[in-house]
């Protein structure tokens, strides 16, 4: 698949699926993706990490949601792995897919490490934590801390939690599509 085809497929999916409610939060999925990417860009993250912030919840809508994989109406169980595989299948980098794949592990790690992070989760994020395995245990946390993507995964997770502000201007997908083309190697 060419970079142009991969990016076109990604943004067609965002345009058709992204306006849905962001499971228990006061904004659309697309607005959440946009806000996470904006936060990453504002902190000076590299373009691949900014795109990972944009794509981190892609797994909620790139594959069908069923009774078997639903987290009681709060999204798709395993969405991090589904989204990562979807990106890999379209030729996006292992780092980008890895960051998407690890954003739930980062949540679980931060809940283990920092009681104030756990206490500050939104009600929906608190509810999905159980579906995602709960806070890590000591062994899981020690292993995750050795992951080469550990630091960037934690950054992405913090942007994810902060990207839940209602209101705002409509999302201009053109900016993120141009970024995706550069990251995928076509821009």
Describe this structure as you would to a colleague.
This is HD domain-containing protein. InterPro entries: HD/PDEase_dom (IPR003607), HD_domain (IPR006674), OP_Dioxygenase (IPR052567). Residues 33-108 form the HD domain. Helix content is 61%, strand content 0%. The mean pLDDT is 85. α2 packs across α9 (150-162) and α3 packs across α5 (94-113). The protein has 187 residues and is an all-alpha fold. The radius of gyration is 15 Å and the shape is globular.
What's the structural blueprint in terms of helices and strands?
Elements: H1 3-17, H2 29-42, H3 47-55, H4 79-89, H5 94-113, H6 115-119, H7 123-131, H8 138-144, H9 150-162, H10 173-184
Query: Which whole number gives the mean pLDDT?
Result: 85
- What level of helicity do the residues show? 55-70%
Instruction: Count up the helices.
Output: 10
Oligomer: single chain
User: How far apart are the first and last residues' alpha carbons, in Å?
Assistant: 15 Å
The SSE string, one letter per element, is HHHHHHHHHH
Low-confidence runs (pLDDT<50, min 5 residues)?
A: none
Radius of gyration: 15 Å
Question: Strand pairing plus helix content: what structural class?
Answer: mainly alpha
- The number of E-state strands comes to 0
Could you give a short account of the major beta sheet?
A: none
Overall spatial form: globular
**Beta-sheet strand percentage?**
under 5%
Domain HD: 33-108
Pfam families: HD
Protein name: HD domain-containing protein
Organism: Zestomonas insulae
């Amino acid at each position: 698949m060419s970079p142009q085809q991969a990016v076109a497929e990604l943004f067609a999916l965002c345009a058709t699926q992204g306006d849905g409610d962001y499971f228990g939060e006061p904004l659309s999925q697309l607005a959440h993706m946009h806000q996470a990417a904006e936060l990453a860009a504002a902190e000076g993250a590299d373009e691949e990490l900014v795109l990972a912030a944009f794509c981190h919840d892609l797994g909620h809508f790139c594959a069908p949601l069923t009774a078997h994989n639903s987290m009681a109406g709060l999204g798709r169980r395993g969405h991090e792995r589904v989204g990562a595989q979807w990106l890999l299948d379209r030729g996006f980098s292992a780092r980008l897919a890895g960051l998407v794949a690890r954003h739930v592990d980062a949540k679980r790690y931060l809940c283990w490490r920092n009681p104030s992070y756990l206490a500050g989760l939104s009600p929906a994020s608190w509810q999905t934590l159980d579906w995602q395995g709960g806070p890590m245990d000591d062994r899981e946390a020690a292993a995750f801390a050795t992951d080469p993507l550990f630091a960037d995964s934690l950054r992405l997770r913090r942007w994810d939690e902060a990207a839940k502000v209602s209101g705002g201007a409509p999302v201009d997908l053109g900016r993120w599509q141009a970024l995706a083309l550069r990251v995928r190697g076509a821009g």
